[in-house]
Write a structure and sequence with these properties.
heterodimer, A: mainly alpha, MetI-like fold, 2 domains, two-stranded antiparallel sheet, 13 helices, B: alpha/beta, Rossmann fold, 6-stranded mixed β-sheet, 4-stranded antiparallel β-sheet, 26% strand, globular
Chain lengths: 290, 253
C-alpha cells in the first residue's frame, strides 16, 4: 500500500516535470539572451540600437544600428506574406472544400513533403535558379535581392499556412453548410460567406504561424538575399535580415565583447517579435476552439 | 376546400435508393397550398429522405438514386435551377443551428445572399421575419448579440425566421421540436398554425400527438411505403389500415 503511494508520487512528479520542461527551457533561453545581450545597452542606448541607420560592428569606432536589419527582415517577411497568404488560403479552401478525395490526399501529402524539405536545400535552389532568373528579368547587377528572399520564404511558409487553415476549414460544422445550401446558396456563396467566415480565427492563426516561421528563418534567407546591411529602398535590392546577421557574424566575434553582446541583443529583438506573433496566433486559435 | 385547387407538390410514383437500399417505394401523393401536411412514421421509414428530395438536397449525396417525378406547381423540379428551387422550398432541420453570427445577420444572411443590400430594407425583412416566427418581442432589444446565446427554442424560431426571410413558398420541417421542451414546442406549433395562412407547410414528426394537434392532412409512412393518407381527424379517429391504428395508438414505433 505504502509502496504504491510512493510510486504514484514519483510518476506524478515526473509527468509534472516533463510538462513544465518546455516552459523552463524557454525561460532559460530568454534569461541567457538577456544576460549576454543587455550589456550592449550600457554603451549604446536602446533607441540608437534600434533606430540608428548604420551597422558597422567591426569598424573603429563600431556602429551598432540595427534599423537596416529590422527593415530587411520586415521587407522580406512582408513580401513572403503577400505571396504566400493568398495562395496558401486559396489552396486550403481548395483542398478542404472543392478537391475530390483523391486529389485531396495527393495535395495534402505534397504539402507535408514541402514542409519536410530542409531550408538549406530550398535556399540552394533559390540561389541557383531564382537568383539568376530575377537578375535577368529585371536587368539587375545581382539576383540576390529581397524579392528572391520573399519568394523563397513564401515556399517555406506555405505548408504551415495551408495545413493549419485546412484544419480550421474542415472543422466548420456541416450544419452551417447545410443551412446555407438549404436557403439556396450556391457552393461558392456557402464557401465564401459561411465556411470562410466561421474558419476565420483559424485562418488568422495559420497566417500568423506561417509568418512566425518566415521571420525566424535563417539559412535560406542568408543564401538568397545578398546580405547587404543597407536600408532598402526597393524590393529589388539586396538586404540583410536579423537572423542572417546573427548566423553570419557570430563566428567572428570575441566572446563577451561588444559585437558579441550586440548579436545577442538582436536575438532578444527577434525573440520578442516571434513571441508577439505566436501570442496573437494563440489568441485566435483559442477563439476557434470556443 | 383544398381538393379543388391544383396541387403545390405532385409526387408521382417516386422511389429513392441509397446505394442498394430502398428508402422510399413508389410514393404518389399531392400536397396543397396553405395546408399543414404532416408525415408520421417510425425512424428510417423514409420521411426525411422524402423532404430532402423535394428541394434536391439529396442531390449532394453520391449514393442517391431516384425514379418517378416530383412536380412543383406543375413543373418537374429537375428542370428548375437548383438554387431557386431551394429558395422556394426551404427546410428547417431537427436541431437548430444558428450561423456563427449575430441574430440580425443570421436572418439577413439569406436576403443578402440573394442580392438585397439596402439597409432599411434588410432591417424591415429582419423585423417581419422575427415577428412571423414569434421571436421579435423576445429579441428586439438585442439583435446584435450572437445568435448562439439564445435558448434552444428561441434558436429554432430563429432558424424559422431565417427561412422566412428568403420568402419561400413551401417550408418543410424535419422534426422541428425533437430537441425542445414542451413550452418551446407549443410556441413552435403555434407558429406553424399561423404560417400556414401564407405558406405551404410540410411537417415530418416522430411525435404522433403533434401531428394530431397541428396537421390538416396526415400521411403514415412505414418502411418506405405510404400506408395511409387522410385528413388528420379522420386518420386519427377511423384509420382504415390496422398498422396505422397500431402506430397511432402506440402499439409499436
Amino acid at each position: 500500500m505504502h509502496l504504491r503511494k510512493v510510486k504514484e508520487f514519483i510518476i506524478e512528479r515526473m509527468i509534472f516535470l516533463s510538462g513544465i520542461m518546455s516552459i523552463i527551457i524557454v525561460a532559460l533561453i530568454f534569461i541567457f539572451l538577456l544576460k549576454e545581450g543587455l550589456s550592449i545597452f550600457w554603451r549604446v542606448p536602446i533607441s540608437d540600437f534600434l533606430f540608428a541607420r548604420n551597422w558597422y560592428p567591426i569598424s573603429d569606432p563600431p556602429q551598432f544600428g540595427i534599423l537596416p536589419l529590422i527593415l530587411g527582415s520586415i521587407l522580406v517577411t512582408a513580401g513572403a506574406g503577400v505571396i504566400s497568404i493568398p495562395i496558401g488560403i486559396a489552396s486550403a479552401l481548395f483542398i478542404a472544400e472543392i478537391a475530390p478525395r483523391k486529389t485531396k490526399e495527393v495535395l495534402k501529402a505534397g504539402i507535408e513533403l514541402l514542409a519536410a524539405i530542409p531550408s538549406v536545400v530550398i535556399g540552394f535552389i533559390g540561389m541557383v535558379t531564382l537568383g539568376p532568373f530575377i537578375k535577368d528579368l529585371f536587368h539587375l547587377s545581382t539576383g540576390l535581392t529581397a524579392l528572391s528572399g520573399s519568394i523563397t520564404l513564401a515556399f517555406m511558409a506555405m505548408p504551415t499556412i495551408v495545413s493549419i487553415a485546412e484544419d480550421a476549414i474542415t472543422a466548420v460544422p456541416r450544419q452551417y453548410r447545410d443551412a446555407a445550401i438549404a436557403m439556396g446558396a450556391t457552393k461558392w456563396q456557402t464557401t465564401w460567406r459561411i465556411v470562410a467566415h466561421a474558419a476565420r480565427p483559424g485562418m488568422v492563426a495559420a497566417v500568423m504561424l506561417g509568418i512566425g516561421r518566415v521571420i525566424g528563418e535563417t539559412m535560406a534567407v542568408m543564401m538568397v538575399t545578398g546580405n547587404a546591411a543597407l536600408i532598402p529602398h526597393s524590393i529589388l535590392q539586396p538586404v540583410r535580415t536579423l537572423t542572417a546577421t546573427v548566423a553570419a557574424e557570430m563566428g567572428e566575434t570575441v566572446q563577451g565583447g561588444e559585437h558579441y553582446a550586440a548579436l545577442f541583443a538582436i536575438g532578444i529583438v527577434l525573440f520578442i517579435i516571434t513571441f508577439l506573433i505566436n501570442g496573437v496566433a494563440d489568441i485566435y486559435l483559442h477563439k476557434t476552439k470556443k | 376546400m383544398v381538393g379543388a385547387k391544383a396541387p403545390k407538390f405532385s409526387i408521382q410514383d417516386f422511389t429513392i435508393h441509397f446505394g442498394n437500399v430502398a428508402a422510399l417505394k413508389n410514393l404518389t401523393l399531392d400536397i396543397f397550398c396553405n395546408e399543414i401536411f404532416t408525415i408520421i412514421g417510425p425512424a428510417n421509414s423514409g420521411k426525411s429522405s422524402l423532404l430532402q428530395s423535394l428541394n434536391r438536397l439529396n442531390d449532394l449525396n453520391a449514393a442517391y438514386r431516384k425514379s418517378g417525378k416530383i412536380l412543383l406547381d406543375g413543373t418537374n423540379i429537375d428542370e428548375l435551377e437548383v438554387e431557386s428551387l431551394r429558395k422556394r422550398v426551404s427546410i428547417v432541420f431537427a436541431l437548430p443551428f444558428p450561423l456563427p453570427l449575430s441574430i440580425f445577420d443570421n436572418i439577413a444572411y439569406g436576403p443578402r445572399m440573394h442580392g438585397i443590400k439596402n439597409k432599411a430594407k434588410l432591417a424591415g425583412i429582419v423585423e417581419n421575419s422575427l415577428r412571423e416566427s414569434y421571436l421579435w418581442d423576445e429579441v428586439k432589444d438585442r439583435l446584435h448579440i450572437p445568435a448562439m446565446n439564445l435558448s434552444g427554442g428561441q434558436q429554432q424560431r430563429l432558424c424559422i425566421a431565417r427561412i422566412l426571410a428568403v420568402e419561400p413558398e413551401v417550408i418543410m420541417f424535419d422534426e422541428p421540436t425533437s430537441g425542445l421542451d414542451p413550452i418551446s414546442t407549443a410556441r413552435v406549433e403555434e407558429t406553424l398554425r399561423v404560417l400556414k395562412e401564407r405558406y405551404t407547410i410540410i411537417l415530418v414528426t416522430n411525435n404522433v400527438a403533434q401531428a394530431a394537434r397541428v396537421g390538416d392532412r396526415t400521411a403514415f409512412v412505414l418502411m418506405g411505403e405510404l400506408v395511409e393518407l387522410n385528413e388528420t381527424k379522420r386518420l386519427f379517429t377511423t384509420a382504415v389500415d390496422k398498422r396505422t391504428d397500431d402506430y397511432i395508438t402506440g402499439k409499436f414505433g
